[in-house]
Amino acid sequence: MKKEYLNVYECRFRQPISDFPVVRIEADPKNIAAFIVMADYEKDYALYDQDGRFLLTTMGKYADRIPDENLRKDILEYLIPMQMGEEKIPKVRYVLENRKKKEMLRER
Question: What is the pLDDT of residues 27-39, one digit of tens each?
Answer without folding.
Answer: 999 999 999 999 9
